[in-house]
Structure prediction request, 480 residues.
Amino acid sequence: VEKVNALPKGFLWGGAVAAHQLEGGWDQGGKGVSIADVMTAGANGIERRITDGVKADEYYPNHEGIDFYHHYKEDIKLFAEMDFKAFRTSIAWTRIFPNGDEAEPNEAGLEFYDRVFDECHKYGIEPVITLSHFEMPYHLVKAYGGWRDRRMIDFFVKFATTVFKRYKNKVKYWMTFNEINNQTDYQREFAIFTNSGIQVKPGENAEEVMYQASHYEVVASALAVQIGHQINPDFQIGAMVAMVPIYPATSKPQDIMKAERAMQARYWYLDVQVKGQYPSWLTAYQRRAGYDLDITLADLDVLQVGKVDYIGFSYYMSFTVASKDNEPVDYHYNEAADLVANQFLQQSEWGWQIDPEGLRYVMNWLNDRYQVPQFIVENGYGAVDKIEADGKIHDDYRIDYLRQHIEQMELAVAIDGVDLMGYTPWGCIDLISAGTGQMSKRYGFIYVDKDDQGQGSLQRSKKDSFKWYKKVISSNGEDL
Ligand code: P53
Prediction:
């Protein structure tokens, strides 16, 4: 197919980060302890541990991050040098409400984000803001058990309302919960803790707890959407999911049905957040499983009203699933057990299966199902970078990954007619990995001198991909 110029003028090219992974300053400016502050460093294949509060003898990589808290001017200047039109970050809830249940917000925290957003606007960069990105107040975990408690809705809505009002003229693009669907993998301690601040108790049904927490979150999200639109009708408020398409292992009909159910199980959040209602398979499943969920009729009304304006999503990889010989009739999806390798795909060093065409596939899938604008708010390649003797970093592997994904993204727009708002690849500056707590799993165009033990000067330098991405943006995606 002949190459067609795809992207509209005003397309939001940029980069993405999250507060807890880069800011540092974990106890400065009145900030409270977040769930990210009690997670140790893991390694490739080794899970991070969640400690009972902050312990003096543990290393917590997010406490310092890359110290964006003190380097934000320098870093935003570098983003501007790449010609960024948008910068996605999150507001650390604990800077605004240190414990989460206070009556009044912390002014010093609010002022920090005033400075960050002003700095962006100085260069014509639009902030794109996630409200809750794996960093809720740890106090809410201890005192309320995280999102298993309905009172969380009020705390979140108060936080959202506070920042919507404060930044109503500085921020137009918002998302409520980052990768709200990671907790589909509820057997993984990391997923349900980072999404919902939940530590499953012995004897508890983790899936039931996950569905309850998820319900309170989608209600809180819908309320925030409604309130945000009242505060500023120009706000664009999105959902945010991790899009990992799940393919059938073969054309065997049972594999097809298994993959269908897996997709339903991973993406029902969008049925609720975009279409305003629970899908029938899930309501039926929850009833059959005998889950005693607190889902009221008033909640269902809220969901109908608080529909999002767009779908923000991350895209890194695809999954593949196979049915079992004795597959149960409900095709129940168990993410921890049901996935198989895809023989057609290469993996990153961290086992993430690289699949550029999968990006075009999910864009079509979302478009057919939801018919709302899309925003790719994360995409990227975590890799170990090597510094040459002359200080240069030749990260061709990262350029290749991004180029192939941008090509597919452009096909989805030009050939398939997808309405795409922007593209903000993940970790535009090296930061702490969410999954492993490593520094050495790097995504950036900008290198940060710091290692997995927390040693380093924090000095910033440009990788080869820096110049490449600047060229991509300046040509509006023509020159890859
Ligand atoms: P890290 C799993 C699968 C897909 C995306 O991830 C994920 C995760 C969690 O590990 O997280 C998102 O740092 C998330 C970011 C995160 C990024 O992807 O584990 O929104 O906070 O850093 C990359 O390599």
Observations:
- The chain has one domain: 12-474.
- Residues 18, 21, 134, 178-179, 242, 314, 316, 378, 382, 426, 433-436, 441 surround P53 (CB under 6 Å).
